């Protein structure tokens, strides 16, 4: 009984650490295993981070009509996974990276899913007929981390929470001015599909200064 109680307490403490870490906005542990885009931290605030991402190259799907972001993310991830396994014109295999991001289209049930290309493949990305290259210039991004599996309702809730946390900050005016020029928000998934605990996701709102 004593041992069982100790294990229960340990499990609770570990869960608490994960929740606190996500609320503080820590670098995802996945980036210790997989290559991730590089950035500099401009500010870590209450419920948000402001990062300055360096130039990056992504491979993206075309628009995916789907009844939900969850379904579109699955469809897009499956295609991109085949791509890095060699289903491309040059039959090039690539290492897995993180995150995989899903872009929503305001007012439409259409989504785009993107895979961060390893640096060694960014100069000459392997091409595929049904995928296209997206190049990011250095850009400011507002971030909110959260855990669990992503659903449409959860992503909207977290995006709203991010915007609430940015109100009355010096960043909000630049974010408002960027509306219509940048995606409303992106959802970044860092955890593999089979991981059931301590999952890490982020809401990203790109903006210009």
Automatic annotation (TrEMBL):
Q: Which Pfam families match?
A: SOUL (PF04832)
Q: Which InterPro entries match?
A: Reg_factor_effector_dom_sf, SOUL_heme-bd
How far does the signal peptide extend, from start to end residue? 1-25
Q: Which UniProt keywords apply?
A: Signal
- Organism source for this protein? Eruca vesicaria subsp. sativa
Name of the protein described by the UniProt record = SOUL heme-binding protein
Return the similarity comment: Belongs to the HEBP family.
The keyword Signal is assigned to this record: yes
Q: Coiled-coil region(s) at which residues?
A: none
């Amino acid at each position: 009984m004593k041992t069982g109680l100790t294990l229960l307490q340990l499990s609770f403490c570990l869960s608490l650490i994960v929740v606190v870490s996500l609320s503080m906005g820590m670098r995802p542990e996945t980036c210790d295993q997989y290559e991730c885009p590089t950035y500099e931290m401009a500010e870590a605030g209450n419920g948000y981070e402001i990062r300055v991402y360096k130039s990056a190259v992504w491979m993206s799907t075309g628009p995916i009509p789907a009844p939900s972001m969850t379904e579109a993310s699955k469809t897009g991830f499956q295609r991109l996974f085949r791509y890095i396994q060699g289903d491309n014109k040059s039959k090039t295999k690539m290492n897995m990276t993180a995150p995989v991001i899903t872009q929503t289209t305001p007012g439409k049930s259409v989504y785009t899913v993107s895979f961060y290309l390893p640096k060694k493949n960014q100069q000459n990305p392997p091409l595929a007929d049904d995928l296209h290259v997206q190049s990011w210039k250095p850009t400011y991004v507002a971030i909110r981390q959260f855990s669990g599996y992503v659903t449409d309702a959860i992503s909207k809730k977290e995006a709203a929470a991010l915007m609430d946390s940015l109100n009355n900050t010096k960043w909000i005016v630049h974010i408002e001015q960027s509306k219509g020029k940048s995606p409303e928000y992106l959802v970044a998934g860092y955890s593999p599909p089979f991981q059931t605990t301590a999952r890490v996701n982020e809401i990203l709102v790109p903006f210009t200064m």
